[in-house]
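Please, does this match?
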Amino acid sequence: MQHQQKYFWICVYGLCTLFLFSILIYDHYRSYSNFYDQLTTETVSIEKVLEHIPICTPKDRPRQRNLLTMLQAWSHLAEQHHIPYWISYGTLVGYVQRRGLLPHDSDVDVIMMSDDTPQLIKLSQLNFSSDYVIKVQPQWYIANHSYRSYFRKDGIHFVAPNARFIHRKTQYHVDIYPAYDFHPLYAIKSTEDKQSENLAIQALRNHWLSYPRNWTYPLETCYFSEIKVLCPAQPEKFVATIYGSNAVRKSDTRCVHGRWVAAI
């Protein structure tokens, strides 16, 4: 009788353990599945958007499709995990000029506050996707990227961004650049619990740009090639300050005889 009771409780314990383990697996793959379900439902809209984006070379359309699909995946992931960011640099130029992807662009650029990078570190350790991976620069805390190193064995082929959201197969990526609430060349981060009136980012040719916080905040929901993303509060001021006033309305690249060339 004692052996039967012992066997009975062993079975009960085993079934309970199996049940709890099954719940954990289900919960993990449900969120994993939701990530892909959201992407799948919007794939058709990307194909419609592509009809309105010019091409110049045979490789343009596949590249454009990959970039928009990747941006869409990043947007969903950032929203799901409450990651604050805003589109920037060449991607922001595209938004200002044509509310979407520049036909010749080769990557996607976003900015987030450097202090939020630990969120990306935690996310990079999760198996959130079989198609995408997040790589964080191990020296992200060093503001001047000229003092950072490459970690090529770990797939870190970049120093300027704090991180990259990378498609495993195509290697197309979202560059995630840092912004600071102090000027890295002239000040150190304040230990006081107060907001700086300015933010600082690296602009062209590694020059630092310090600008009013209200150019960025409050972040606004906007639609980039019909993909919901976050934009800075005053995108035109960003573009005009970094690239010149002409960049607000005119592209610096044009198609000539099947090639993208600099516009004169």
Q: What stands out?
A: The two ends are 93 Å apart (CA to CA).
